[in-house]
Design goal:
Blueprint lengths: L1 H17 L1 E5 L4 H12 L3 E8 L16 H13 L2 E6 L1 H17 L6 H20 L4 E3 L4 E6 L2 E6 L16 H4 L2 E2 L7 H10 L3 H4 L14 H8 L3 H4 L3 E4 L5 E5 L22 E6 L4 E5 L1 H4 E12 L2 H6 L3 E4 L7 E7 L5 E10 L6 E6 L2 E8 L5 H7 L3
């Protein structure tokens, strides 16, 4: 009898844990809606808000000790009657994500901080906090869905194409994806606003959008100068060159330019000029026309693919090379050195090393990789014809 009672208690406690979900609460529209939705679905919601980087606009008054988003998240938690925690991870965020961001620019690459932040930082910390708070599940306000297929869990693009965030999540491993819930995948942003309004959170439903890079206000170049005060001494001016390597003018230093950039170059050539290539070693920035930016192939590296054979044989394979870019039909070859050669079957432009290339079958994410240096690509193309 005692054993049966103990088993019943164990089963009850385990079931309680299975209905506990940790929500990453940013204080914004999306995570707020997620908390309410999950409560309605019978989950016991626990909230955690990460304090990663303080920006001036996040403080409404001069003597405020915590940024507005923490106060808003705490207020919502109190209204909903849910447990709430604050994780002050500012120093770790600086050492991991901000350092990566700066290092990439200092190597002449274009960083993807959100792609790196999800697996290396936020989702990892959410898992740690979920374990700490006995939550079986984790949830965020990302606009995407999940799909089970052949024993694997795949990220699927959200229904709102203007808010879909599947591009940023390709590096999440299976063990983390199996704990995730994405309630907003079937909603548009407008529908989420209407949902919050209907639930009595009218002010919250009218809130603004968050910054694309959460730790930067304004121009990233000013941020680099702030974080590296002697950057202009370390790097200094360099030369603009044409696509034949001929010097055509002077620039302020290679970290201040990105592939595809057209505005703010500070040089007049009599025709629109775009950044084609950046050479950090020589401190040169190659300029050319929009036509010069177009590419038929690209090299990618450090891939994370769920099923490599599926990727290589997929007849409807597409790739996105920037967050806002449209999917481009493509084919992929796996190279001996672990890189992949991608052949575009549609128009592609401004291939930026450091950015993510995310592969899709329809709306389903098959995996992704980082765009590599394109040096030597013509030799690779000749050796690996499609």
């Amino acid at each position: 009898m005692e054993n049966a009672f103990a088993y019943a208690i164990f089963a009850f406690m385990n079931n309680q844990k299975e209905k506990r979900v940790l929500v990453g609460m940013s204080g914004g529209i999306d995570s707020s809606a997620v908390c309410i939705m999950l409560q309605e679905q019978g989950y016991e919601v626990v909230g955690v808000t990460m304090r990663t980087w303080d920006v001036a606009s996040a403080f409404s008054s001069p003597n405020q000790e915590e940024p507005d988003f923490i106060l808003e998240a705490r207020s919502l938690a109190e209204k909903l009657g849910i447990e709430h925690h604050v994780a002050d991870v500012r120093e770790e965020f600086k050492q991991v994500i901000v350092k990566y961001f700066i290092d990439e620019y200092m190597q002449g690459r274009t960083p993807n901080p959100c792609v790196m932040c999800n697996p290396l930082f936020k989702e990892r910390l959410l898992c740690e906090w979920a374990d700490k708070t006995d939550c079986a599940w984790i949830s965020t306000g990302h606009y995407c869905r999940l799909e089970e297929r052949d024993g694997n869990r795949y990220i699927v693009a959200g229904d709102d194409v203007t808010k879909d965030q599947s591009y940023f999540l390709w590096r999440l491993p299976q063990n983390i994806l199996r704990r995730f819930l994405f309630p907003l995948g079937n909603y548009t942003k407008q529908e989420v606003r209407e949902y919050l309004n209907a639930k009595g959170f009218e002010a919250k439903s009218k809130g603004g959008e968050s910054m694309e890079v959460c730790f930067i206000e304004g121009d990233y170049r000013d941020f680099l100068r702030q974080q590296i005060p002697d950057i202009d001494t370390k790097i200094g001016p360099g030369f603009f060159v044409d696509n034949k390597g001929v010097k055509i003018g002077q620039h302020k230093g290679f970290p201040y330019y990105t592939i595809g950039q057209r505005k703010g170059l500070g040089i007049a050539l009599g025709h629109p000029a775009h950044v084609l290539r950046i050479n950090a070693e020589k401190n040169t920035v190659m300029l050319g026309t929009a036509e010069d930016l177009k590419a038929e192939y690209m090299l990618v590296e450090d891939a994370m693919i769920i099923n490599t054979n599926e990727l290589l044989t997929c007849e409807s394979l597409t790739v996105r090379i920037r967050y806002r870019s449209k999917p481009i039909p493509c084919q992929v070859r796996l190279l001996e050195n672990g890189q992949m050669l991608v052949r575009f079957l549609g128009e592609a432009s401004a291939i930026a090393p450091g950015q993510s290339a995310v592969f899709y079958d329809g709306k389903r994410v098959l995996g992704g990789a980082f765009i590599a240096s394109q040096r030597g690509i013509f030799k690779v193309i000749a050796e690996h014809p499609f």
